[in-house]
Amino acid sequence: MIKIKNLHKKYGNLEVLKNINTEISQGDIIAIIGPSGGGKSTFLRCINRLELADSGEIFIKGENILDPKTDINKIRQKVSMVFQHFNLFANKTIMQNLCLAPVKTKILNQEAAIKKARNLLKKVGLCDKEDAMPHQLSGGQKQRIAIARSLMMNPDVILFDEPTSALDPEMIGEVLSIMKDLAKEGLTMLVVTHEMGFAKNVANRIFFMDKGNIAVDDTPKEVFEHPKNERLKEFLNKVLNH
């Protein structure tokens, strides 16, 4: 579904991504772990061109999104992103937040969008919040709405950028539970996360990113039970014994 070749990204003299090559298949649940500054969020943001890579190729379903001729808005309809800080429109109700993109892009008419939004609100356990404003919701509820909003576009892939890091501990579980349900449905997901339990129990692949490289691409079993990479061992010792 996604093929990445020789991907590089610099900020000034700092090379944040160095020659990344990987392929992501339909249904993959990839947990992206690693120390801060390793390039995890930048890598994710390059996949839907929120950050423009300096060189390399990113193919999504055979289309190179770094080609200037590519209609990136069309690609983004199929590659949704869920951010750390929710990014809901503060001046719109939850229902308006959910319906805005599919109606504006003419994927759904207003009536169909409202129907779909209600189904998704049920899925994320927030049926009673359609007329609420974002400031009336807890962090966990906002993030569940952000996930519902990303599903409104019928994406093939959802990119999650540290979806639980801005949440209080008791709210993390409710968001991870929705993500586990999506994984069971076979949605392709790339998740930058500090939640090692999620990485271990839900992902089928783990990318350990360090110094701008995917230093390890392996199964959770190999990563957690038989880590061979020294930097990965150090990282796991630190996070698991914290």
TrEMBL record:
PROSITE patterns, alphabetized: ABC_TRANSPORTER_1, ABC_TRANSPORTER_2
Keywords assigned by UniProt, alphabetized: Amino-acid transport, ATP-binding, Cell membrane, Membrane, Nucleotide-binding, Transport
InterPro entries the UniProt entry points to: AAA+_ATPase, ABC_ATPase_HisP-typ, ABC_transporter-like_ATP-bd, ABC_transporter-like_CS, MetN_ABC_transporter-like, P-loop_NTPase
Signal peptide annotation: none
Subcellular location: Cell membrane
SMART domains: AAA (SM00382)
Domain ABC transporter: 2-236
Record has Kinase as a keyword: no
Superkingdom assignment: Bacteria
Molecular function GO terms recorded: ATP binding
Chief location bin: membrane
Membrane topology according to the record: Peripheral membrane protein
Family assignment from sequence similarity: Belongs to the ABC transporter superfamily.
Protein's name according to its UniProt entry: Peptide ABC transporter ATP-binding protein
Source species of the chain: Campylobacter taeniopygiae
Lineage of source species: Bacteria, Pseudomonadati, Campylobacterota, Epsilonproteobacteria, Campylobacterales
